[in-house]
């Protein structure tokens, strides 16, 4: 059953000097327990779409339904994990993880139990009493992930959460996130410009194209677990998505050449 329905979303940004249509006719459905990656080149509107789902940005037209209820503002049924961790530096790790649950008025005992469970999952047991400034970038993002998972919202929205990390740290976190999702079956929308991340994590990959941002294709990833980047099926899907995206780049370059010729 689909938990989230995105119906014909359009978004146009209007400023004094120009009007930009950023999203055009976006239609998507997400099933409970599904991990969806939205992939597309920089500027194609991924963050805008995620912000609309989060309720942080208003669509120009269209509707979004979560569990059958139309949404238009932020709510506790959705949690967002950004590229920058947005942790509270003056709180200890454990208090950061418990923060969202405290807002939800979960009892002290229950939130401590849950916080420790998720700190365990992100491999940060033993760091409960550390301060954020004592942690590396990767560890901070683990804390943010534990905090986001612990509130148990209906859907978790992630916007390039690991893109500020070095490659090695990022790959370890991708593997851990994938394993956590296989066991917890959280419903997640994960935005990235990185095709490898998308194929590694997703049940289904939504490929976007730009100007205006549209859904170009939806590709189901049926790769055996554990996913191996060196396997033929993995390489074939990554290639397929990259060639879809480069077709767009070529078309855009062609259009630009044509415009350039027209101008001359
Ligand atoms: N607040 C805004 N005002 C005007 N234009 C915006 C605003 N936010 C985003 N855009 C435009 O929308 C397009 C898509 O941006 P974004 O959603 O950030 O893309 P992505 O996350 O895929 O890189 C960009 O061309 C950007 O200039
Ligand atoms: Mg973005």
UniProtKB/TrEMBL annotation:
InterPro entries: AAA+_ATPase, ABC_transporter-like_ATP-bd, ABC_transporter-like_CS, ABC_transporter_ATP-bind, P-loop_NTPase. Keywords: ATP-binding, Hydrolase, Nucleotide-binding, Transport. This is Aliphatic sulfonates import ATP-binding protein SsuB. Residues 4-235 form the ABC transporter domain. Its EC number is 3.6.3.-. It comes from Clostridium beijerinckii (Clostridium MP). It comes from the Bacteria. Pfam families: ABC_tran. GO terms for molecular function: ATP binding; ATP hydrolysis activity. It is an enzyme of class 3 (hydrolase). The keyword Transmembrane does not apply. Coiled coil: none annotated.
């Amino acid at each position: 059953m689909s938990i989230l329905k995105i119906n014909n979303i359009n978004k146009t940004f209007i400023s004094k000097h120009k009007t930009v249509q950023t999203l055009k006719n976006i239609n998507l459905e997400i099933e409970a327990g599904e991990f969806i990656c939205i992939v597309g080149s920089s500027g194609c509107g991924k963050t805008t779409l995620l912000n609309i789902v989060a309720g942080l940005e208003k669509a120009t037209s269209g509707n979004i339904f979560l569990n059958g209820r139309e949404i238009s503002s932020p709510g506790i049924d959705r949690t967002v994990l950004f590229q920058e961790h947005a942790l509270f530096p003056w709180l200890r790790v454990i208090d950061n993880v418990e923060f969202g649950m405290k807002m939800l008025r979960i009892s002290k005992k229950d939130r401590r139990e849950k916080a420790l469970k998720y700190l365990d999952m992100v491999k940060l047991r033993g760091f409960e009493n550390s301060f954020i400034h004592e942690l590396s970038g990767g560890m901070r993002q683990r804390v943010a992930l534990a905090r986001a998972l612990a509130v148990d919202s209906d859907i978790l929205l992630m916007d390039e959460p690991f893109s500020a990390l070095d490659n090695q740290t990022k790959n370890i976190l991708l593997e851990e996130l994938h394993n956590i999702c296989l066991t917890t079956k959280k419903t997640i929308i994960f935005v990235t410009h990185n095709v490898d991340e998308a194929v590694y994590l997703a049940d289904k990959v939504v490929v976007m194209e730009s100007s205006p941002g549209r859904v170009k294709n939806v590709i189901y990833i049926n790769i055996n677990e554990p996913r191996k980047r060196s396997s033929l099926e993995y390489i074939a899907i990554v290639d397929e998505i990259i060639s879809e995206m480069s077709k767009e780049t070529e078309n855009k370059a062609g259009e630009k050449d044509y415009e350039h010729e027209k101008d001359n």
